[in-house]
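cron nightly-structures :: item 1 of 1
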Amino acid sequence: MQRVKIVSTGFYLPPKVQTAAELAPLIGKSERWIITRSGVAERRIAEEPMDEMATKAAKEALGDGPPPDCIINASTTPLQLIPDSSPFIQRTMGMEGIPSWSIHATCLSFLVALNNAAALIESKVYKRILIVSAEAGTPFRDFEDPKSAALFGDAAAAAIIEPTPHGESSAYIDWEMNTWPDGAELTEFRGAGTRHPPNHPTKTSEKDNLFQMKGKQVYRQALLRIKSNLTELYTRNKVSPKDFDRLIMHQASGPAVQMAEAFGFPPEKTVNIIGKVGNTIAASIPLVLATANKNGLLKRGDLLLVGGTGAGLSVGFSIIRW
């Protein structure tokens, strides 16, 4: 257990809304098909770069407090490959000289960043860490793959992490993450790397620069591997689903969020925002957390289970005392 505290959160949703009815003709499906299959009635479409979205979420999380002494960008869609996006985010925030870097673990990026931040604060390297996730992934949807194109939306969310004051119970208790590389080809963006270099005449195709996913296989693998991941975490900490006040889960799809019931979490414990925002990739987990916090669903002392799945295939969950 690490005595660290999520002291504040913030989020930003781009103002442009794309409804299922508006998306339907682009992917050759009906509005009803989109909502039934994906659970997403609408999503946000960014018209600004990810560093601007990140800044808006970060400033809400920072509030009137002091600047952070460390910035971790936990996002999947970068401004460019080099440098990583964190210097651009820091510059857009009007700051300089603060150590900053990026953590890329696809949809689990925020969770991995939180685990790293907890260790850095516990070891007294930093005292006030900003974690921010900003995703502008909708331009990379493949409209010829309607099952995945129906899922995604753009958003940003952030959190401030500090040491827990004396007399308070907030803590980062434990985490469990596993990766099964046999699922690496199930969720892909193949372009922009050394395997498919940009503009290469023979190695790279248009599809390599669009998101590709085998949704049914991901869902089946996730069912099995979430169970084994949570069993290990529960056993080590002597807890069960009934001990948690809230489940803060990556909003991969409507069916994926509903999967929580199969793992012992009734709908009233699961924060569900998928229908209004879609799958916002790495911004998903902090967006659920920040939305729950803003709506008064989290009380200090609540026990939270936070996590989900990511491309790889990875599964990760953390136990947090809010």
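cron nightly-structures :: done
DSSP finds ten helices and 13 strands in the chain.
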